Amino acid sequence: PDYFLNAAGKNAAETIGQVIIKVDDVLEQEKPEAMLVLGDTNSCISAIPAKRRKIPIFHMEAGNRCFDQRVPEETNRKIVD
């Protein structure tokens, strides 16, 4: 990868917060025309700073919807969509 975010935290909230902060720094530096987000893991939350910067987002392999809000990946899918 061109960037290693080193965003792992002590819990999910800390990790997600670090992903948002660090991805925003990369977006500021790179100024991409669009962003491709893969999957439904916490890394896909990087779509939040992209959306706030009005960068178009393409979401691939988002996983099948299970409609179970107890599943963290389902929450991630809904946030990105």
UniProtKB/TrEMBL annotation:
One of its GO terms (molecular function) is isomerase activity. Residues 1-81 form the UDP-N-acetylglucosamine 2-epimerase domain. Pfam families: Epimerase_2. Keywords: Isomerase. The keyword Hydrolase does not apply. The keyword Isomerase applies. Coiled coil: none annotated. InterPro entries: UDP_GlcNAc_Epimerase_2_dom (IPR003331), WecB-like (IPR029767). Belongs to the UDP-N-acetylglucosamine 2-epimerase family. PANTHER family: UDP-N-ACETYLGLUCOSAMINE 2-EPIMERASE (PTHR43174). This is UDP-N-acetylglucosamine 2-epimerase. It comes from Escherichia marmotae.
